[in-house]
Write a structure and sequence with these properties.
Number of helices of chain B: 18
Strand content of chain B: 5-15%
CATH class of the largest domain in chain B: Alpha Beta
Strand order of the largest sheet of chain B: 2-1-3-7-9
Distance between the termini of chain A: 61 Å
Order of helices and strands of chain B: HHHEHHEHEEEEHEHHEEHHHHHHHHH
Oligomer: heterodimer
Structural class of chain A: alpha+beta
Structural class of chain B: alpha/beta
CATH architecture of the largest domain in chain B: 3-Layer(aba) Sandwich
Helix content of chain A: 25-40%
Number of strands of chain A: 5
Number of strands of chain B: 9
CATH topology of chain A: Ribosomal Protein S8, Chain: A, domain 1
Largest interface: A-B, 40 and 40 residues
Strand order of the largest sheet of chain A: 1-5-4-3-2
CATH class of chain A: Alpha Beta
Largest sheet of chain A: 5 strands, antiparallel
Radius of gyration of chain A: 19 Å
Number of helices of chain A: 3
CATH superfamily of the largest domain in chain B: NADH:ubiquinone oxidoreductase-like, 20kDa subunit
Order of helices and strands of chain A: HEHEEEEH
Chain lengths: 131, 353
C-alpha cells in the first residue's frame, strides 16, 4: 500500500492566522515586561492549516531550557528562542498530544514544585527517617 | 472511584501529583473550550467535585455515538472523567442484562432522584411505540419515566437532538427528538452523526466541574462547541474568499487543497467544532481529508438535498426551479450548482463509455 506521502495532495495552505498569533505573543511579552500578568494561548482553539502549528514552533525556535514533566503522560516544556515565551505540549500515556499551549511567563506554573506535593513529600521523608 | 469520594481525593489515591492534577485541569479546560485563564477555577471546582450519576439510554440508534465516545483520543483525561462519573446504566456497555439491568436503572433513579444526568442517544418512535422497546417498555414510556426525576438531559447525536436518520423522509417510525417529547427539563443537544467524542466528554466535564448547564445556542447545543460554523473556522476559507474551488474530486484544485464548496461542502451552514477539535486523535477532519462537510450536526441533514450538490442547489430543489432562478439572475451560487450538475453528468457519461 502506498504511504500517505505518495498521494499527490499539497498542503501548502495558509489560514493567515500564524502572523496575528505571533503579534499576540509580542503583545503578551510587552504586558509581561510592564509587570502585568502572563498569558496562555491554547493552540487547539485556533483554525490552523496542516503544517501551520509546526510553522509557529519553527518561528519561535528553541531556547536554553527544555524540561519534561512525567505526570499522567509526558509534558514537554520548551523555552523558545524568545525568552519568556514557552511552548508546552501535554501528551497522554499513549504519547498522543492532548493539549498544546504557548505560555508567556517567567516560569511556567507546571515547573514549580507544588505546595500539596511538597507537603506530601516532607511526610514521606519524615517517615523514611523514622525507620 | 467510591461514591463518597471527591475527584481530588480520588486522584491523590491514584498517585496523581498536584502537577498531574494541574495538567488534567489544563486539558479539561481546553476540552470544555474554556480560556486557559480558567484553569485555576477548574482546578478548584474539580478538586471538590462529587461523582454524578449518569443513566444512558439508547433508543433508535446505530451505536455510532457510543462507538465515537469509547474510541475517543485522550484516554488519560477522558478515562479520568469517566471514572469520575457513575455510569449506572448503559445497556450496550454494561455487563448486566434483562431484569437485573432494569432493576439497576430503577435503583439508580430512586437513589439519585432529582440529581442524575440522563443521556439519550437515538430518536424515539412516536408513531407506533412498538417499533423500539427495551425490556418490553416502549422508548417513549421509558424516556418519560427516566426524565421525570433527572437533573438534566444530554441528547447525544443528531437522532436524539433532532430526529436524525430515523426521521428522514418518509420517517416510517414517526421518529422524534427528545425535545419533542420532554418539555419541562433542561436539554443539551450534542448533535453530530456521530458527535465529536471530546464534545460529549466536554459537556460531562462541565457538569462535573460546575454542576450547571453550559451556555446553549438557539438549537440547544453548547455554544462553546457549536457557536461558530465550520466554514468560518476552516483552514480552506482563504480559497473561498479568493474564488478558488475544486470542481471535481481529482482536479488540480482538489490536489491543491482548494475550497470544496462547489462539491457540496455544507460548512457554511453547519455549526460544529470539527475544524478545530478534529477527529481521530486530533489528526484531521473531513474537509482536511478532501471531502466536503455533510452537515451532520444540523436538523434534517438527510433531507437537505444531495451531499454533493452545492448548498445553493439544495435551496432550490428541482432542476427546473434552479433554471428559473438562474434565468432571473438570482445567484452566483446557483450558477455553480448547475455547473456541478453538468460536471456530474459529464463524469457519468464518461464512466458509461
Amino acid at each position: 500500500m502506498s504511504s500517505l506521502e505518495t498521494i499527490p495532495v499539497t498542503t501548502e495552505v495558509a489560514t493567515g492566522n500564524v502572523e496575528p498569533l505571533l503579534h499576540e505573543i509580542r503583545h503578551a511579552l510587552k504586558r509581561l515586561i510592564e509587570g502585568k500578568e502572563g498569558t496562555v494561548i491554547d493552540l487547539k482553539r485556533l483554525p490552523l492549516a496542516p503544517g501551520e502549528e509546526e510553522r509557529i514552533a519553527a518561528t519561535l525556535g528553541t531556547g536554553e531550557v527544555r524540561a519534561e514533566v512525567d505526570a499522567l503522560g509526558p509534558t514537554l516544556i520548551q523555552e523558545t528562542s524568545y525568552p519568556g515565551v514557552w511552548l508546552i505540549t501535554h501528551k497522554n500515556v499513549d504519547d498522543v498530544v492532548v493539549a498544546r499551549f504557548v505560555e508567556v511567563t517567567y516560569i511556567p506554573e507546571l515547573l514549580r514544585s507544588q505546595q500539596a506535593d511538597i507537603d506530601a513529600g516532607i511526610n514521606r521523608l519524615e517517615n523514611e527517617l523514622k525507620n | 472511584m467510591r461514591k463518597d469520594q471527591n475527584l481530588g481525593e480520588y486522584l491523590r489515591m491514584q498517585g496523581v501529583s498536584r502537577r498531574g492534577f494541574l495538567k488534567f485541569c489544563s486539558a479539561t479546560a481546553s476540552l470544555m473550550a474554556l480560556p486557559p485563564s480558567a484553569v485555576s477555577q477548574v482546578a478548584e471546582a474539580l478538586a471538590t467535585a462529587r461523582r454524578p450519576s449518569v443513566i444512558w439510554m439508547s433508543f433508535q440508534e446505530c451505536t455510532g455515538c457510543t462507538e465515537s465516545l469509547t474510541r475517543s483520543h485522550a484516554p488519560t483525561v477522558e478515562s479520568l472523567i469517566f471514572d469520575a462519573i457513575s455510569l449506572d446504566y448503559h445497556h450496550t456497555l454494561q455487563a448486566a442484562a434483562g431484569h437485573g439491568a432494569e432493576a439497576a436503572r430503577e435503583a439508580a433513579m430512586e437513589e439519585n432522584k432529582g440529581e442524575y444526568i440522563l443521556v439519550v442517544d437515538g430518536s424515539i418512535p412516536n408513531g407506533n411505540n412498538g417499533y423500539s422497546t427495551i425490556a418490553g417498555i416502549s422508548n417513549h414510556d421509558m424516556l418519560i419515566e427516566a426524565a421525570a426525576d433527572c437533573f438534566a438531559i444530554v441528547a447525544v447525536g443528531t437522532c436524539a437532538s433532532f430526529g436524525g436518520l430515523p426521521q428522514a423522509n418518509p420517517n416510517p417510525t414517526g421518529a422524534v427528538s427528545v425535545s419533542e417529547i420532554i418539555k419541562d427539563k433542561p436539554i443539551i443537544n450534542v448533535s453530530g452523526c456521530p458527535p465529536i467524542p471530546v464534545v460529549i466528554t466536554g459537556v460531562l466535564a462541565h457538569f462535573l466541574t460546575f454542576g450547571t448547564i453550559p451556555e446553549l445556542d438557539a438549537l440547544g447545543r453548547p455554544a462553546a462547541f457549536f457557536g461558530q460554523n465550520i466554514h468560518d473556522r476552516c483552514y480552506r476559507r482563504p480559497f473561498y474568499e479568493r474564488g478558488q474551488f475544486a470542481e471535481t474530486f481529482d482536479d488540480e484544485g482538489a490536489r491543491k487543497g482548494w475550497c470544496l464548496y462547489k462539491l457540496g461542502c455544507k460548512g457554511p451552514t453547519t455549526y460544529n467544532a470539527c475544524a478545530t477539535l478534529k477527529w481521530n486523535q486530533g489528526t484531521s477532519f473531513p474537509i482536511q481529508s478532501g471531502h466536503g462537510c455533510i452537515g451532520c450536526s444540523e436538523p434534517s441533514f438527510w433531507d437537505k438535498g444531495g451531499f454533493y450538490d452545492p448548498i445553493s442547489a439544495g435551496q432550490w430543489g428541482s432542476r427546473d426551479a434552479l433554471l428559473g432562478a438562474a434565468a432571473a439572475g438570482a445567484a452566483l451560487g446557483v450558477g455553480s450548482a448547475l455547473a456541478a450538475r453538468a460536471r456530474k453528468k459529464k463524469a457519468q457519461a464518461a464512466e458509461e463509455v
